[in-house]
Specification:
about 80 residues, mainly alpha, about 0% strand, elongated
Length: about 80
């Protein structure tokens, strides 16, 4: 698991945006490939898509949690 504690809120938000873009691209690719009529897609390939999508969603959740934690630290803590 990645440690996002050393990243600023701006860096985390930039990472979140990139991850959301990657997720959208992967979901579109999956829909395109699986939507092809007459094209056999192995169960292994389907599982690979699902694994990659789940992994990206979990990483997005961790980044969002880190952003919320950083924002609450900033709101509750004194600035230096």
């Amino acid at each position: 698991m990645e440690d996002f504690s050393g990243m600023s809120t701006a860096e985390l938000e930039e990472l979140l945006s990139a991850l959301e873009g990657d997720l959208e691209d992967l979901e579109q690719e999956r829909m395109y490939v699986l939507g092809q009529t007459g094209l056999h897609v192995s169960a292994n390939q389907v599982k690979t898509y699902e694994t990659e999508i789940s992994s990206l969603k979990a990483k997005i959740e961790r980044v969002e949690d880190s952003i919320r934690a950083k924002k609450s630290e900033g709101a509750g803590g004194a600035s230096v």
